Amino acid sequence: MPISIKTPEEIEGMRVAGRLASEVLDYITPFIKPGVTTGELDRLCHEYMVNVQGTVPAPLNYAPPGYTPYPKAICTSVNDVICHGIPGDKVLKNGDALNIDITVIKDGFHGDTSRMFFVGEPSILARRLSDVTYECMWIGISMVKPGIHLGDIGHAIQQHAEKNGYSVVREFCGHGIGRVFHEEPQVLHYGRPGTHEKLETGMIFTIEPMINAGRREIREMPDGWTIKTKDRSLSAQWEHTVLVTETGYEILTKSAGTPPPPAIVQPKAQAAA
Ligand code: MF3
Ligand code: CO
Ligand code: CO
């Protein structure tokens, strides 16, 4: 199956879904404090999606081949959890670092985005790992334009992570997205320039690097979803959903609370008002 090229109508639907996903992250931010459980964060996000936004949480009951249905509305991945952490009784404490990953469905379209958060004051390592991971995501985003290859992006992300002494998780990747949650292409966060698919205007996919402070190996928890670092080192992740435009890219998962690009990335010229 070739990578789908979205129509103008589909792109508009994806803009709406993307903004709404990002707004769930804005909404939950002030609740992330010592003493709150990840289950409470899930409950709050779920209620906000359904009752305020009129969106559907895509993770709930999501069951790709080989998986049991995912039991919650969001993913909360704390400290050495790489991704797909299931919200529950875990009480957040000062110094924890967590990723919250939100995917909403609005009018059939998916918006998928995640950010890192700290509970109180993070360690220097946790802050640096999150910052480098954010730079990795943005290095990838800033390269997006018609004609480049996905391997160019993966290579640049891997170079930046490894230059900083960190490792790139191999088992999970970014993905095409639209009416389907996970579709082609696979967007690897490592690789060689010139390999994999060539980008064309109208493609939509996520860039969502998972970067470990230690070794890249993973272990899967008995719940069938939660993925941790094998060596118990910290892991970080950031995610945006991105459209390939004629001149470059458009980030679809943007809202009032979206952090600005990092200093190492040349900000894209904004159209004059
Ligand atoms: N949002 C995740 C991603 O970025 C996927 C989560 S699947 C779930 O692709 F079932 F764990 F929610
Ligand atoms: Co994703
Ligand atoms: Co996601």
UniProtKB/TrEMBL annotation:
Q: Which Pfam families match?
A: Peptidase_M24
Explain the purpose of this protein: Removes the N-terminal methionine from nascent proteins. The N-terminal methionine is often cleaved when the second residue in the primary sequence is small and uncharged (Met-Ala-, Cys, Gly, Pro, Ser, Thr, or Val). Requires deformylation of the N(alpha)-formylated initiator methionine before it can be hydrolyzed.
Q: What is this protein called?
A: Methionine aminopeptidase
**Region annotation (Disordered) ranges:** 253-273
Which EC class heads this enzyme's classification? hydrolase
On cofactor binding, the record's note says:
Binds 2 divalent metal cations per subunit. Has a high-affinity and a low affinity metal-binding site. The true nature of the physiological cofactor is under debate. The enzyme is active with cobalt, zinc, manganese or divalent iron ions. Most likely, methionine aminopeptidases function as mononuclear Fe(2+)-metalloproteases under physiological conditions, and the catalytically relevant metal-binding site has been assigned to the histidine-containing high-affinity site.
Q: Which residues bind a divalent metal cation 2?
A: D112, H175, E208, E239
What are the record keywords, sorted? Aminopeptidase, Hydrolase, Metal-binding, Protease
Reaction(s) catalysed (UniProt annotation)? Release of N-terminal amino acids, preferentially methionine, from peptides and arylamides
Positions that bind a divalent metal cation 1: D101, D112, E239
Q: Which GO terms describe its molecular function?
A: initiator methionyl aminopeptidase activity
Question: Subunit comment for this entry?
Answer: Monomer.
PROSITE patterns documented for this protein: MAP_1
Cross-referenced Gene3D superfamilies, in alphabetical order?
Creatinase/methionine aminopeptidase superfamily
Organism field: Massilia solisilvae
Q: Which family does it belong to?
A: Belongs to the peptidase M24A family. Methionine aminopeptidase type 1 subfamily.
InterPro entries attached to this UniProt entry: Creatinase/aminopeptidase-like (IPR036005), Pept_M24 (IPR000994), Pept_M24_MAP (IPR001714), Pept_M24A_MAP1 (IPR002467)
